[in-house]
Amino acid sequence: MSSRITKSKTAVMASICAAAAVVAACGGSSGGGTTSNTASAPGITPTTVTIGSTQPLTGPAAPGYSEIAPASKAYFQYVNAHGGVFNRSINYTYLDDQYNPTATSTLTRKLVLQDNVFAIFSALGTPTHLSVVDYLNSQKVPDLLVSSGCNCWNNVAQHPYTFGYQPDYTIEGKILGQYVKQTYAGMKVGYFAQGPNDEFGDDGVLGLNDVLQGGGVTVASPVQYYAPTAAGAMGVKAEMAALQGQGVQVIVAFSIPVFTATMLASAFSIGYHPIFVVSNVGADPPTLTAILTGGALGVALPQALIGGVVSDAYQPLVSDSANPWITLFKSIKSQYAPSLPWDGNVLYGMVQAYTFVQALKAAGQNPTRADIVHALENGHFTGPGIVPFSYSSSNHNGYSGVQVVKIGLDGTETAVGSIYTTDDTSAGAITQYSGTPSTPPANGIP
Amino acid sequence: MNTLTRHGLFFIALAAVLVAVTYQVDEFWNYNIAGIAIFVIAAAGLTVLTGINGQLSLGHGALMAVGAYTTSLLLKTQPQTPLILTLLAAVITTGAAGAIIGVAAARLRGPYLAGATLALAVGLPQIATHFGSVFGGNQGLPVAPLSPPAFLGTDFSSNRWLAWVALSAALVTLFLLANLVRSATGRRMRLVHDDETAARLAGVDVERTQVLAFIISAACAGLAGSLFAYQLGITSPTGFNLTLSLQLLSAIVIGGLGSLFGAVWGSILLVILPLKISDLAGNLNLSSDVANNLPLAVYGGVLVIAMLAFPRGIQGALVSLVRLGRRAVRAAGPRPQVSSTS
User: Fold this and answer.
1) If exposure means fewest CB atoms within 10 Å of the residue's CB, which of A73, A249, B40, B169 is most exposed?
2) Is the pLDDT of residue A330 over 50?
3) Of B26, B232, B279, the CB nearest to A101
4) Distance of alpha carbon B116 from its chain centroid, rounded?
5) Per CATH, which fold does A170-308 belong to?
6) pLDDT at A397 over 80
7) From CA B132, how far away is CA A300, in angstroms rounded?
């Protein structure tokens, strides 16, 4: 979308474009394909766009998350097979940093200096990506849709080229907190979180406390923390026993999948059966099932532990086969990445890739690096996500809210109640979102 | 020519060659040259401790963390601290930490020493997580990148400057260590390694020698850690995990245990190899389960083959090669005039 179009018109145009199947209808400022393609920026040739990413393909964060980049790549292959973006095909290079900032630092420089990427896309992890965010901005390399819910990506003054993607953990904490307060009034609530002094756990607890402190429910203290090391994954029985001892009836967890699984198994093994509320990144049912049944934990009936867990979502539900987006991405997956499982991580990678293609298209036929930044700030994109993006020239946060979901005994998620949006300030109101969900374009390409 | 002059001339010539190299390669390889130089400093320090003095340390990654955090904290409170002071501060604090650990280590042997230093590698970075308000927790402490001094001009590459700083530090370290291992202290360290009882009978204070080796080695790790902080731009516990300690150890073993040259070869291999194979994942049309693990498998495979092919490390293999070459020349030649095998 051109930045010349006024704001009110942009929203109308966005919905028209999303519905329209005509590729050229969403053309940028340089005008609908009549001019020829040029090498308008580093990483852009008349026929290709090269982008790169660092991902934990191996190591402690790999289970689940290693599927994201291959899923994005599958979507890009689909786009390339259908004419690409302005007749350019997208080359996506993702490198394994093993969730180690040292490797992230080196590999990101390799992508920028040697592979000459147009932009970094979907780089995963808070500690890892923090090590390169200054570098990328100093080199004016677009750093788009970071795969982490840290609210640290939204710093337009210092990091104008960096954009977050998923709802930050404080937003999630606030909306989950509101659900807990309304649904489990009068009960005792305890927290289980990654940390201490870890943005994931801390930001989540911050959001929860904004809503839960001072009324409705009793909050047990202290927070039970876990350190994300291999040794910790052996069991968190002591933490669960502490919460059990305090009579906690509802546990709200900000944990990565391995520790959600460990938490569920540990509580069960000491005969403790509270209600579990788990943040989105740690609650994907297929991922949890795989971890619970595999290796160390060896749980025979994982659905008995996962069933009943409350979580939240900002993209369509993986098991919602009636949703046209799910039909679209599922068919792309089976054609271009048949070896990947069908789960929340794969969907995440595909929705993210779709959003990137939206931005690339809106940046115009011959975009510069600054063009794609403006495209994201002004695009007001609607797509697979069930909540709107926060992007503007003063806000680089990603999705602005979530909907609470409940996992059933068969491992499928069901939406509970309305969709809410909010921001990460403690004063920011939680408002119900009533926008209608968009439908995919006929050819599946924005 | 005495050792000092010979080493001095060698290092000056090497420095000239390396400066020329930094003008020939691009930004990315300057960044990697800095990475190699930093690895060399830590690995050379570990060579003195493990290869020469015979004390196994699985905790040198944690000592690098001490140096990195010293620098980062100093820059956090005094952003204008000159480079030389932050490096020195890191050397001193890490040397002091090394002295404390060294005293404990001198009482431990074999697997017990390995276990104690392993605990260090696992435990020390957790301190940063635990006292997050000081050390920045998992998110870590940011470090502003090194900017080249004004006299080099405004468009001087910051990566080349980083390479120069790291190379200078590496050359100074190697020069000092090369002289050390040839000195009386170096001989005492070797003697302690070979036979403690004989060393004691010869009047060598075994514990003192061992603690000294630990201090020197730790000081090197501290210097490397400090430069590492500048190179990475952030100091966080995840950057100083057990893998780093094990990589340092693999570097000196694969390079050739007990030789400073070996530390250099090992460092070059361990920095360049992962870069060369990192592209394997995406370029071949494999299922993601295979593709994701392929670089790691190749990396492990190359290291295993290197160990099988060169049981005495790369340096050991090079030395054998040179010997073979000389013998061949001698056999082929009619009559050797001078034997220069000294």
Assistant:
1) A249
2) yes
3) B232
4) 21
5) Rossmann fold (3.40.50)
6) yes
7) 39
pLDDT digits (tens, 9 = 90+) for B15-41: 999 999 999 999 899 999 999 999 999
Mean pLDDT, rounded, of chain A: 88
Distance from chain centroid for Cα B285: 37
Dist. CA A224–CA A248, nearest whole Å: 12
Cβ contact B288–A126 (<8 Å):
no
ipTM surpassing 0.95, yes or no?
A: no
Q: Check B142 against A134: CB less than 8 A apart.
A: yes
Claim: this prediction has a pTM higher than 0.90 = no
Give the separation between CA A412 and CA A344, rounded to whole angstroms.
11
The minimal CB distance from A130 to the residues B139, B279, B288 is found for: B139
CB pair distance less than 8 Å for B130 and A101: no
pLDDT tens track for A40-99: 999 999 999 999 999 998 887 787 889 999 999 999 999 999 999 999 999 999 999 988
> Please, where in chain A does CATH 3.40.50.2300 lie?
7-167+317-399, 170-308
pLDDT on residue B214: 95
Q: Terminus-to-terminus CA distance in chain B, angstroms?
A: 14
Size of interface A-B (CB pairs under 8 A): 122
Asked if B51 and B262 touch (Cβ cutoff 8 Å), the reply is yes
Contacts A66 to B, Cβ<8 Å: 288, 292
- Residues of B with Cβ-Cβ distance to A127 under 8 angstroms: 138-140, 236, 238
HSE-up of B54 (CA within 13 Å, CB side)? 18
Interface contact flag, B238 A73, Cβ < 8 Å:
no
Written as six digits, the tokens of B166 are 């790291």
Give A372-437 as a DSSP string.
Answer: HHHHHHH----SS-SS-B--BTTB---B-EEEEEEE-TTS-EEEEEEEEE--SSSS---EEE-PPP
For range B105-124, the mean pLDDT: 89
A63: Cβ contacts below 8 Å, ≥ 6 apart: A257, A258, A287, A290, A291
Q: Does domain A7-167+317-399 have CATH number 3.40.50.2300?
A: yes
A266, with CB counted inside 10 A (0-12, 13-18, 19+), is: buried
Q: Each residue of A342-371: b (16+ CB within 10 Å) or e?
A: bbbbbbbbbbbbbbbbbbbbbbbbbbbbeb
Q: Quick one: pLDDT at residue B200?
A: 94
Q: Which chain B residues have a beta carbon less than 8 Å from that of A70?
A: 288, 291-292
Search chain A and give the residue with CA nearest B288. A70
